[in-house]
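Long-time lurker. I teach an intro course on protein structure, and each term I like to show students one example going from raw sequence to a predicted 3D structure in C-alpha cell notation. This year I'd like something fresh instead of my usual example. Would anyone be willing to generate the C-alpha cells for the chain below so I can use it in lecture? Attribution to the forum is fine with me.
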Amino acid sequence: MSQTPKCKGPNEKAEHCHKVQHDDENQYDPTYSGNQNGVSGTGEELKNTLVKIVSQLEIISKTLHVLEQRVTMNEDCVVNVVNFFK
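-- Reply from a regular --
Happy to contribute to a lecture. Here you go:
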C-alpha cells in the first residue's frame, strides 16, 4: 500500500498541497454575472426569492412581538413580587 507523504506545511517545499496558483484567469469572482447586469437568474426567480425573504422577515417580526409581550409580562410579575415584599 502506498502512502502519500506527510504535509510539511506551506513554508516547506510541499507542492502536493500548497501549490499557489497565480493564474488570474481561473480566479473566482463572486461579483461576476453571466449577463453582467448584476443579477443572475430570471426575474421570476428573483421575485420568488424576495417573496420568501419577506415571508421570513414577517415570521421574525411576529416572533419578536410575542417575545416582547412575554418579557413585559415577566417584568410586571417581578415588579409585583418586589412590591409584595416591601
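Some talking points for your students: Helices lie at 15-18, 43-84. The mean pLDDT is 77.
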